[in-house]
């Protein structure tokens, strides 16, 4: 497996070891571990950015959108307009005699690379638009060079990345046409886009990343050939028939998927976190994803979507519009529901947690009661902790300050983003989430541990969650199902200790057949 440092150097550092190379992905047909509560649908709430754009919609020449120099650029394949995402102000851009499609942006110059398409052009050709002057110039090819099917500029002068369906080679090429490096992926690339010092590409069932300087691509999410519909982390996620991904250097890739295959509409919108390889389906209520979606581009903390109509009420104008939403989505419905139950007329009475290291943490008792059944019952019972407004944990060294702070932050935000990203810390949070009856926090801690699950730690992890019937235990058994013989052989030296510490698990492994 590629080392984490190799992806850190590319600017796409994950918080877990990198996924297997595309050539090493096991041929799985289904995902063994069931979805856990942390993998609930993410909800994006969109709001309008622009009025109806002065562009036409055509099924034959699908409109496209990209972002350059602080402006959204939208083309209906003949005319391009720009939109200021902050104010919604519009302006005219380039017009071309032949149909074209906005493909990518040179990160250094802001020039937009366009593919010239349609009956007026006998073969695919490439041009670039200067967004200051709106002039279009052809992209020159060296003598004898075939027109690539996919073309990207890296931002280093005229250096580019190209891919041809004929050769199936992904190449980084210098300004003079010399090949600087190349790979031949084990999948046929359907779409590709530029990332920091590398290329993100996809086939129908997987999203991959080629870091410049490496001899192969790594799998970010999905699978090289197995189709399905499942959220999850890395190779545990499944896609049916991916369409064009979009990424502008932030934290998230967004991509549409057709769960039922190529013949079906793209009814699933997916967010891929490049730091953690987490795949989450996105819920959309403000337009019809299968029928009205046209294009999208994430910019900083927001996702901009081009739709051909939006829910604007009876009599609303129909046409191309731009909508936007936070890439982080809305707070979960559970958080909203729990906080709505808080009586704000009640006097604020903090609850103190006295910890074994001598420190104390203070938090709202009514917030704890709203979010945790354990604290709801405790504070309603009239017990000593209720009277003294103090929970004495000084005799419990298993509850550390860092873990308790993360629990309290989760109560307030419904999120688990610990400063300490070690597995040991996640296990501590998992334990106190169980103790204080916070199932979603448990699921989030388990999900973080699933990210780092490997052949060299799966037996250790399984020993700590054996018979919990949680997502982490299911993921451990799933990995053993795939690579169990190799795992047992590689960890022979650890088996005697496992037998001493967890004889029930040892017995289960003896009777289990990989």
UniProtKB/TrEMBL annotation:
InterPro entries named in the record: BTB/POZ_dom, SKP1/BTB/POZ_sf
Annotated TM spans: none
Region (Disordered): 1-23
Species: Alexandrium monilatum
Superkingdom of the organism of origin: Eukaryota
One Pfam family hit: BTB
Name of the molecule in the record: BTB domain-containing protein
Domain BTB residue range list: 350-453
UniProt cross-references to Gene3D superfamilies, sorted A to Z: Potassium Channel Kv1.1, Chain A
Coiled coil start-end: none
Range of residues in the leader sequence: none
